[in-house]
Design a protein that fits this description.
CATH class: Alpha Beta
Helix content: 10-25%
Number of helices: 4
CATH architecture: 4-Layer Sandwich
Radius of gyration: 15 Å
Number of strands: 14
Largest sheet: 6 strands, mixed
Strand content: 25-35%
Distance between the termini: 20 Å
CATH superfamily: Metallo-dependent phosphatases
Oligomer: single chain
CATH topology: Purple Acid Phosphatase, chain A, domain 2
Length: about 200
Protein backbone atom coordinates (compact mmCIF):
# COMPACT_ATOMS: atom_id res chain seq x y z
CA UNK A 1 0.00 0.00 0.00
CA UNK A 2 1.26 3.47 -0.94
CA UNK A 3 0.31 6.24 1.49
CA UNK A 4 0.59 9.94 0.61
CA UNK A 5 1.59 11.87 3.76
CA UNK A 6 1.38 15.67 3.95
CA UNK A 7 2.26 18.16 6.67
CA UNK A 8 2.95 21.87 6.95
CA UNK A 9 2.14 22.77 3.35
CA UNK A 10 1.71 26.36 4.52
CA UNK A 11 1.84 28.12 1.16
CA UNK A 12 2.58 25.66 -1.63
CA UNK A 13 2.84 27.03 -5.15
CA UNK A 14 0.91 25.74 -8.15
CA UNK A 15 3.80 23.56 -9.35
CA UNK A 16 4.10 21.87 -5.97
CA UNK A 17 0.38 21.10 -5.87
CA UNK A 18 0.54 19.75 -9.42
CA UNK A 19 3.54 17.58 -8.48
CA UNK A 20 1.58 16.06 -5.62
CA UNK A 21 -1.51 15.53 -7.78
CA UNK A 22 0.54 13.74 -10.46
CA UNK A 23 0.81 10.76 -8.10
CA UNK A 24 -2.96 10.24 -7.80
CA UNK A 25 -2.95 6.92 -9.67
CA UNK A 26 -0.18 5.40 -7.54
CA UNK A 27 -1.54 6.24 -4.08
CA UNK A 28 -3.98 4.12 -2.05
CA UNK A 29 -4.59 6.42 0.91
CA UNK A 30 -3.92 10.04 1.95
CA UNK A 31 -2.80 11.14 5.42
CA UNK A 32 -3.09 14.80 6.41
CA UNK A 33 -0.80 15.66 9.36
CA UNK A 34 -1.90 19.24 10.03
CA UNK A 35 -1.08 22.85 9.16
CA UNK A 36 -1.83 22.49 5.47
CA UNK A 37 -2.98 25.41 3.32
CA UNK A 38 -6.75 25.39 2.74
CA UNK A 39 -6.43 25.81 -1.02
CA UNK A 40 -3.96 22.91 -1.17
CA UNK A 41 -6.35 20.74 0.83
CA UNK A 42 -9.23 21.54 -1.54
CA UNK A 43 -7.23 20.94 -4.73
CA UNK A 44 -5.49 17.77 -3.58
CA UNK A 45 -8.66 16.33 -2.04
CA UNK A 46 -10.45 16.78 -5.38
CA UNK A 47 -7.69 15.07 -7.34
CA UNK A 48 -7.55 12.15 -4.89
CA UNK A 49 -11.32 12.02 -4.31
CA UNK A 50 -11.51 8.25 -4.89
CA UNK A 51 -8.99 7.58 -2.07
CA UNK A 52 -9.49 7.32 1.67
CA UNK A 53 -8.46 10.60 3.33
CA UNK A 54 -7.55 10.51 7.03
CA UNK A 55 -6.17 13.43 9.01
CA UNK A 56 -5.61 15.35 12.19
CA UNK A 57 -5.41 19.07 12.90
CA UNK A 58 -2.23 21.04 13.47
CA UNK A 59 -1.61 23.81 15.96
CA UNK A 60 -2.52 26.45 13.33
CA UNK A 61 -5.70 24.71 12.16
CA UNK A 62 -9.23 25.68 13.10
CA UNK A 63 -11.57 22.90 14.11
CA UNK A 64 -13.64 22.77 10.93
CA UNK A 65 -11.21 22.23 8.05
CA UNK A 66 -11.12 18.43 7.66
CA UNK A 67 -14.63 17.04 7.24
CA UNK A 68 -15.82 19.60 4.64
CA UNK A 69 -13.03 18.30 2.38
CA UNK A 70 -13.94 14.64 2.83
CA UNK A 71 -11.16 13.97 5.35
CA UNK A 72 -11.97 11.60 8.23
CA UNK A 73 -10.78 13.10 11.51
CA UNK A 74 -8.55 10.49 13.17
CA UNK A 75 -8.18 12.39 16.45
CA UNK A 76 -8.93 9.73 19.11
CA UNK A 77 -10.74 7.86 16.32
CA UNK A 78 -9.76 4.30 15.30
CA UNK A 79 -9.96 3.83 11.51
CA UNK A 80 -9.52 0.62 9.53
CA UNK A 81 -8.39 0.45 5.88
CA UNK A 82 -8.16 -3.16 4.72
CA UNK A 83 -5.55 -4.71 7.02
CA UNK A 84 -4.18 -1.38 8.34
CA UNK A 85 -5.51 0.45 11.42
CA UNK A 86 -4.89 4.14 12.11
CA UNK A 87 -5.46 6.40 15.09
CA UNK A 88 -4.54 10.04 15.62
CA UNK A 89 -3.70 12.71 18.16
CA UNK A 90 -4.11 16.29 16.93
CA UNK A 91 -2.36 19.53 17.80
CA UNK A 92 0.83 20.29 19.66
CA UNK A 93 2.13 21.18 23.09
CA UNK A 94 0.04 23.95 24.66
CA UNK A 95 2.06 27.14 24.26
CA UNK A 96 -0.32 29.93 23.16
CA UNK A 97 -1.15 32.11 26.14
CA UNK A 98 -3.89 34.04 24.35
CA UNK A 99 -7.65 34.28 24.68
CA UNK A 100 -8.43 32.24 21.57
CA UNK A 101 -6.17 29.31 22.57
CA UNK A 102 -9.21 27.03 22.57
CA UNK A 103 -9.67 27.60 18.81
CA UNK A 104 -6.47 25.69 18.06
CA UNK A 105 -5.73 22.09 19.10
CA UNK A 106 -3.13 21.91 21.88
CA UNK A 107 -2.49 19.89 25.03
CA UNK A 108 -0.41 20.04 28.16
CA UNK A 109 1.87 17.03 28.60
CA UNK A 110 -0.47 15.70 31.30
CA UNK A 111 -3.53 16.05 29.07
CA UNK A 112 -1.78 14.19 26.26
CA UNK A 113 -0.88 11.33 28.63
CA UNK A 114 -4.47 10.98 29.82
CA UNK A 115 -5.73 10.92 26.23
CA UNK A 116 -3.13 8.36 25.16
CA UNK A 117 -4.22 5.93 27.88
CA UNK A 118 -7.64 5.74 26.23
CA UNK A 119 -6.38 5.04 22.71
CA UNK A 120 -6.60 1.45 21.43
CA UNK A 121 -3.87 -0.25 19.42
CA UNK A 122 -3.34 0.86 15.83
CA UNK A 123 -0.70 0.00 13.25
CA UNK A 124 -0.14 3.71 12.58
CA UNK A 125 -0.48 6.65 14.93
CA UNK A 126 -0.62 9.98 13.12
CA UNK A 127 -0.03 13.24 14.93
CA UNK A 128 0.87 16.80 14.19
CA UNK A 129 3.75 17.02 16.64
CA UNK A 130 6.31 14.32 17.28
CA UNK A 131 6.63 11.91 20.21
CA UNK A 132 8.40 13.52 23.17
CA UNK A 133 12.18 13.51 22.75
CA UNK A 134 12.15 12.56 19.06
CA UNK A 135 12.74 14.91 16.11
CA UNK A 136 12.22 17.93 18.38
CA UNK A 137 13.41 21.42 17.57
CA UNK A 138 14.84 23.06 20.67
CA UNK A 139 11.96 25.34 21.57
CA UNK A 140 8.83 25.14 23.68
CA UNK A 141 6.64 25.39 20.58
CA UNK A 142 8.19 22.27 19.05
CA UNK A 143 8.32 19.97 22.06
CA UNK A 144 6.91 16.53 21.34
CA UNK A 145 4.08 15.09 23.42
CA UNK A 146 4.46 12.51 26.19
CA UNK A 147 1.12 11.06 25.13
CA UNK A 148 2.42 10.01 21.72
CA UNK A 149 5.53 8.47 23.26
CA UNK A 150 3.35 6.66 25.81
CA UNK A 151 1.16 5.25 23.03
CA UNK A 152 4.23 3.95 21.20
CA UNK A 153 5.64 2.35 24.34
CA UNK A 154 2.32 0.72 25.24
CA UNK A 155 1.19 -0.46 21.81
CA UNK A 156 4.33 -0.83 19.69
CA UNK A 157 2.76 0.41 16.42
CA UNK A 158 4.53 -0.14 13.12
CA UNK A 159 4.64 3.60 12.35
CA UNK A 160 4.36 6.94 14.12
CA UNK A 161 3.99 9.65 11.46
CA UNK A 162 4.08 13.35 12.34
CA UNK A 163 4.60 16.87 11.00
CA UNK A 164 5.23 20.15 12.89
CA UNK A 165 9.01 19.87 13.22
CA UNK A 166 9.65 20.92 9.59
CA UNK A 167 11.98 18.00 8.95
CA UNK A 168 11.98 14.90 6.78
CA UNK A 169 13.52 12.29 9.02
CA UNK A 170 13.12 8.61 9.85
CA UNK A 171 14.11 7.13 13.22
CA UNK A 172 13.68 3.60 14.56
CA UNK A 173 12.88 3.26 18.26
CA UNK A 174 14.09 0.45 20.52
CA UNK A 175 10.74 -1.32 20.14
CA UNK A 176 11.14 -1.09 16.33
CA UNK A 177 8.41 1.51 15.84
CA UNK A 178 9.45 3.65 12.87
CA UNK A 179 8.98 7.37 13.55
CA UNK A 180 8.64 9.43 10.39
CA UNK A 181 8.81 13.22 10.27
CA UNK A 182 7.08 14.72 7.23
CA UNK A 183 7.60 18.23 5.91
CA UNK A 184 5.76 18.83 2.66
CA UNK A 185 4.59 15.68 0.89
CA UNK A 186 6.04 12.17 0.69
CA UNK A 187 4.78 8.72 -0.25
CA UNK A 188 5.27 5.93 2.28
CA UNK A 189 5.42 2.36 1.01
CA UNK A 190 3.72 0.69 3.97
CA UNK A 191 5.24 -2.78 3.62
CA UNK A 192 8.88 -1.75 3.18
CA UNK A 193 9.03 1.63 4.94
CA UNK A 194 10.51 3.27 1.85
CA UNK A 195 9.78 7.00 1.76
CA UNK A 196 9.62 8.92 -1.53
CA UNK A 197 9.84 12.71 -1.23
CA UNK A 198 7.58 14.67 -3.61
CA UNK A 199 7.81 18.29 -2.39
Amino acid sequence: MNILCMADLHAPNKNQIESICSFSSSVDMVLWLGDNDEFAIEEISKKFRDKLHVGILGNHDLYDNLEPNGIINANKNHIQKNEISIIGLEGSIKYKEIDNDSKFPSYSQGESLILSERLPYADIIISHTSPYGIHEIDSDVHRGLYGILNFIQRHNPKYSIHGHQHINKVSIMENNTIVIGIYGASILKYRTGELIKIV
